[in-house]
Structure formats: structure tokens, C-alpha cells
Specification:
By secondary structure, this protein is mainly α. It is built from 19 helices and two strands. Strands 1-2 form a two-stranded antiparallel ribbon. The chain binds 4-fluoro-L-phenylalanine (PFF). It comes from Bacteroides eggerthii.
Length: about 450
């Protein structure tokens, strides 16, 4: 089935950073605060962390085991590991469809970050602050995202950048890139968190994020937390499965999964520590503002904390948005890679031709998503704008469905010896709690996902 030699990641650090590069992105810095704000704050965070531990980690390890064992893209991996059992092949195909839909709306937001870094480069935020109008950042955001040509131009630019890196290949493109950028982003986030804590709404913001109000929990909140966990960890479409197919044999899968989930969760929580103090410091701003939250709250931090310092007030916004562009890029690359690897290996196309096809389809879908926020606002599905529908359908339903079947496949279908060999590198390293892990994989993760779905559908009385 495989015709060409597959690339390999060169170093273990590179593996963790590339996988974390896929996981860490707009999901942590844009979507996590948005969802936390809309779902009541700390109670959401608590359920989110439970979802990461009980559902996310077992599914992540499953993707790693399947990918490395099969040495193939997500769809081919199931064909290799379950020959003749056609029903499993749909997991890979579902992943490709889900990935295409996510990439399409994600790319729109990535385009916004690119616009914001260009705006910062031209000192735009400082100039906006001079107007003294407290709504200036909200107005800028609204007028940009509902525009027709500009956001589309940015999303096309972003998609082409992703395309170029995917075509360059695994090691040269992705690994080199992630090694440099991830640590830089992390440091800047810590600095910004420190700054946000000096704002007057800091205490209220921290209370919102860390002091749970359990009356806020309802089935929708639990579904959102599960969806956010899958989205943020890049699970359910075989993305980490595809990455693991490039892992070498001596990589410790358990450690890698813990490191990736740990880094990802830390970045999300730090993003919350940056955003909510700012939200509660700006008069009239609410945590429930949705997708604009990050794009409006952050310029307020820049203005309030660095306003009197000419160099910093110029440099910090630019650096932040630039790094956000890069964090988004490492995620868009990973989604593009899943789809490209599938098309090129299953349909025997060259990498370049496959990538070009994926890029073209995604540009068309992204454009529709972007226009649905403005000129095309009447294009709705189930009462949702196209952009919102793509987000809702993929994160809350399609990713967990993918994760459910991946857990079932690894837990019930794959030979136990394969699981053991993959987790212990054929007995050469230790893996503590294999039985507990099997229990999580076979029972807790699939049943947990199922119960959350049934609860949301109103078929349970929780
Ligand atoms: N995990 C990425 C983020 O948090 O930004 C988004 C993502 C990447 C989702 C890859 C799914 C995926 F397969």
C-alpha cells in the first residue's frame, strides 16, 4: 500500500514540540477563553480537565499507538491494522472530512491573527488607542471580520503559507519550525499573564476562572468541555496518528502523551489568566462575548499596561500576534498534513498534487465561512452561520465521535500485545498502570463520550 519512504522526526524534543505545536494553537488562546467565558468559567475548566484526563489521554495514546504501529496516514492505518474489516476504514475517512471542515473555519481565524500582526506592525493599536473611544477595538474587530475582501485575502495568504510548509516535507518544514517558535510563545504568554495580573479586574477575572459555580453546569456545558478537550488536543481526526507514523521506535509514547497534554492544558490556562483579568477590567466587556473576546481584550491589556512605554507598546502587540500566527500555523500544518497524507497515499498522488487539491478545497470553504460572518450572513444551517456551524459540528460532535471509535478500535479490536509493545517499546521501557490504562481505554473513555452525547440529546436525566 505504501509506495514511498516516509519521513521521520529527527529528535525526541522535536517530536514533543511538533505534536504540541499541533495541539497548541487558536484552540488554546482563542477558543478556550471563548468557551470558558460562554460556559460559566471555573466549573467549565474543571470538567474540561476531567475530559482531558479521562477521555483525551486514552484517545491520544490510542492515536499514537495506531499511527506508529501502522506507519501510515490515519485512513491507511486502519486498513493495515484491520485488513478486510471495512467498517473501521470509515474512522480515517471521517477524520479527513472533519479535518477539512476544521481547517476551513480555523483558517479564517488564523487570517484574523495575521491581520492583527500586520496592524500591530504598522503601530495600528497605539493609533487606535489615541482616539480615547473605549469601543475602538470592538469596532475594529467587527468591521474587519464582517468585511468581504480583506479577511478573504488574509485567509488565502495563510492557507498558501501552510501549503508551502506542508509541501517542504516533514522534517525540514514542521520540526525545525516548531522547535524555535513554541518556547518563544510560551515565554511571551507568561510575560503577558504577569501583566494581566496587574490590571484592576485581576481578582475578579481569577475568581471567574478558578472559583467554580456548580449551578452553571448543564449538559451543554459538559458537551462543550468535551469538545474543547478533543479540539485542543487535536484528537479524533487521526492527526496525532499521522504524526506518530513519523515517530521512531524508541519514542516513549506514554511520556510524549503526558507532555503534550500537559503543555496544551498549561497554555490554555495561562491564556485564561491573561484574558479574564482583562475582560473584567474593561468597562462594559463581558466574558460571554464569544469569538471576539481575545481580539478585543488583548489590545486593552496592551493599552493599559504598556500605554506609556513607546517601545514596548509597539513591540509587545506585534510579537504576540506574530507568535499567535505561528502557533496557528503549526496547527493548520498538522491538519493539512492529515488530509494531504491521506490523499497522496491512498490515491497515489504526488505530495505536491495532493497538497494543492487540499489547499484549493480549503480556500473555497474558508472563504464561504468568512463571508458567512458578513455578506453571507443569511447562509445558515440549523439556524447557525456557516462559520459557527463548522465549529459546532466538528468540535462538539465529529471529533468526539472519531475519538469514540478510535478508543473502541484500540481498546477492543487491536491485539493486546500490540498495545503492550507500543507502550513499552517491545518491553524495553516501563509503562506503569497498564491495566488501569486498559480500563480507561475500553470502558471509561467510550462510555464517557457516549453518556455526554446522550445527556446533550436529552435522553438521560442528569
Ligand atoms: N489543537 C489545535 C488548536 O488547539 O488550535 C486545533 C486542531 C489541530 C484541531 C489539529 C484538530 C486537529 F486535528
Amino acid at each position: 500500500m505504501e509506495t514511498k519512504p516516509r519521513g521521520k522526526f529527527a529528535s525526541k524534543l522535536g517530536i514533543i514540540l511538533a505534536s504540541a505545536g499541533s495541539a497548541v494553537g487558536l484552540g488554546n488562546i482563542w477558543r478556550f477563553p471563548t468557551e470558558t467565558g460562554e460556559n460559566g468559567g471555573a466549573a467549565f475548566l474543571l470538567i474540561y480537565i476531567c475530559c482531558i484526563l479521562l477521555l483525551g489521554l486514552p484517545v491520544m495514546l490510542s492515536e499514537f499507538m495506531i499511527g506508529r504501529h501502522a506507519h501510515a496516514n490515519a485512513a491507511t492505518a486502519f486498513e493495515k491494522l484491520a485488513p478486510g474489516k471495512k467498517q473501521w476504514h470509515w474512522i480515517g475517512r471521517l477524520g479527513v472530512v472533519t479535518g477539512t471542515m476544521i481547517l476551513s473555519f480555523y483558517n479564517v481565524v488564523a487570517g484574523w491573527t495575521a491581520n492583527y500582526s500586520v496592524c500591530a506592525l504598522g503601530n495600528g493599536f497605539n493609533r487606535m488607542s489615541e482616539s480615547g473611544d473605549p469601543k475602538v477595538f470592538t469596532d475594529y474587530f467587527n468591521s474587519f471580520v464582517t468585511g468581504t475582501y480583506e479577511p478573504v485575502a488574509y485567509l488565502i495568504g495563510f492557507m498558501l503559507l501552510t501549503h508551502i510548509i506542508v509541501v517542504l516535507g516533514v522534517e525540514k518544514g514542521i520540526e525545525r519550525f516548531s522547535k524555535l517558535m513554541m518556547p518563544l510563545l510560551f515565554i511571551l504568554l507568561l510575560v503577558l499573564a504577569g501583566c494581566a495580573l496587574t490590571m484592576e479586574g485581576a481578582a475578579e477575572g481569577l475568581r471567574f476562572l478558578f472559583q467554580p459555580d456548580f449551578s452553571k453546569i448543564d449538559p451543554g456545558v459538559v458537551l462543550s468541555a468535551m469538545g474543547q478537550a478533543f479540539f485542543s488536543l487535536s484528537l479524533g481526526i487521526g492527526c496525532l496518528c499521522t504524526y506518530a507514523s513519523y515517530f521512531k521506535e524508541d519514542v516513549n509514547l506514554g511520556k510524549t502523551a503526558f507532555s503534550v497534554a500537559g503543555i496544551d492544558t498549561m497554555v490554555a490556562v495561562i491564556a485564561g489568566i491573561i484574558i479574564f483579568p482583562a475582560v473584567f477590567s474593561v468597562p462594559g466587556m463581558e466574558p460571554t462575548e464569544g469569538p471576539k473576546l481575545v481580539f478585543v481584550a488583548l489590545p486593552h491589556i496592551f493599552k493599559d499596561v504598556f500605554g506609556g512605554l513607546p517601545l514596548l507598546s509597539y513591540l509587545v502587540p506585534f510579537l504576540f500576534y506574530f507568535l499567535l500566527v505561528l502557533a496557528s500555523l503549526t496547527s493548520t500544518i498538522s491538519m493539512h498534513e492529515v488530509i494531504t497524507a491521506y490523499i497522496s497515499e491512498v490515491h497515489h498522488l504526488s505530495r505536491k498534487a495532493a497538497a494543492t487539491l487540499v489547499t484549493t478545497i480549503c480556500i473555497v470553504l474558508s472563504t464561504l465561512c468568512s463571508l458567512s460572518l458578513g455578506a453571507g450572513s443569511e447562509w445558515t444551517i440549523g439556524g447557525m452561520m456557516l462559520f459557527d456551524f463548522f465549529d459546532y459540528a466538528t468540535a462538539k460532535w465529529m471529533l468526539p465521535v472519531g475519538g469514540f471509535f478510535i478508543a473502541i478500535f484500540a481498546g477492543w479490536f487491536l491485539n493486546r500485545q500490540i498495545l503492550w509493545d507500543e507502550l513499552t517499546n517491545k518491553g524495553s521501557i516501563r509503562f506503569y498502570g497498564f491495566k488501569a490504562f486498559l480500563f480507561l481505554l475500553r470502558f471509561v473513555a467510550p462510555l464517557g463520550i457516549l453518556l455526554i452525547f446522550l445527556n446533550e440529546l436529552g435522553w438521560l436525566a442528569f
